[in-house]
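Methods — Computational structure assignment.
A single polypeptide chain was analysed. Its primary sequence is given first, followed by the predicted tertiary structure written as structure tokens.
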Amino acid sequence: MYGKASIKYLNILTAILITACIAWFKFEYHELWKDEWQAWFVAKDKSIADVFSFLYYEGHPVLWYLYLKIFAQFSNGNNDFILLNIAHLITVVSGLYFLFVKFRMPLVIKLILAASYFMFFEYGIVNRGYYLVILFAFWAVWLLSKNNYKPLHLAIVLFLLCQTEVYGTLMAGALSFYILYNNYERREKLFSIPVFGLLAGLIIFIVSVFPRDTGHITRTSPGSWSLGDKFLIAVQGNLANTYTPGLTKDTFTYGSTAAGLLLSLMIAIVLYFIFRKDRKVLVTMGLFLLSVIMFSFLIFTGGIRQWGMGFVFFIAMLQLTNTEWSKERGIIVVIALLSIFNIIHGFKALKEDYTYPFSNAMETGNFIKAKVPEKVPVVALNKFDATPVIGYAGRKFYELPDGKPFSYFRWVDRIYVPTEGELQLFGKFKGVGGVILLSPKPIDSQRYPSATLWKKFDGTNYKNENYYIYTLPVQ
């Protein structure tokens, strides 16, 4: 009994240490990206009803936005960075709690998986809603691994899983197949309460998110690939790029390769080896893998951030297996070897995030906060690039031709480039002697002859996103 208690406390201590490392890096070194600020401002500056109507432009379910809205109530304009980091860190703690405290796999496996690129950096450092997927997916398989779970409890978890991300919905669908499989084996009713929880979650997901009018997918598509190329990209992305990131070139950018596809086949064989003794889990894992490949092929190609959801589901499936870990040294070794590439890629990502800012948005925003009085309006000439600067500046910027303040963008919006005359009229309307122009590139001196470059932020950054600040006197 003492031994079990010691192992439990060791698990908790390990989870605390990993969380502390994530928190330290988030607050000290990670610059928030455009996507991180976008979700925060949508939650902060829109009503709950408006958030639901805005999902068509975002392509993500509502749960992350509603969750952030709780923390946004405490915003004073200058603490958004802290609030967003805290909000996300709570989801990280919750997901790691299930992994380290509730899951029954050996501590060494938990540690290896938690230190992976996806669990630590891509989902742990970056403030997106993917750890909500991890939380509810882990919660669901923990319930399923018990013999006496309450069906309504599982139904609620599956419903919420469907409201995290589209990949959460695919996970919920695969887990519902596992439930049906179980019910069939036990000669129970196939359509139990948890399955109805999935169906309800799926309906809400489709009604609220289905992209009837969004250019997001078009904007993020990887170019004009043939159908055959898209399928091979989907296969390589969801296998080689997911389980051995960095070992092949980025599939989204460069497409599939013979080496990448061969590596994908080898990974599929490894997955079969790991789950081969539990047919239900093997089929469930295969069904999920097939669903994400078809989703990438037919709807949204995605990138390593999205493909990593497969690695999360892989961890969840380890909890569902009947593996006697003390007798399966071979599986432990295989998982450890498979995770090496994930860990190495994670260290590389941390090094890059530490060495280079993601963009020059933070430096630009801090400059505006310190140097530009509140009464002087800042006009963004490209609102798609302005959102992270707004986050660090702690104030909204303006867009023309409507002259309204904004903090977030819509993927379907067109970029309107105002004339100098329009900017002059806007400045007179605001009753100021001049306006500040923010541009992601040097502006045309012939279009804006009266504008003067004040400060440029074009230092080395990972995304090569630069900013130029101009002053324009109102005459």
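Note: The chain has two domains: 2-355, 361-473.
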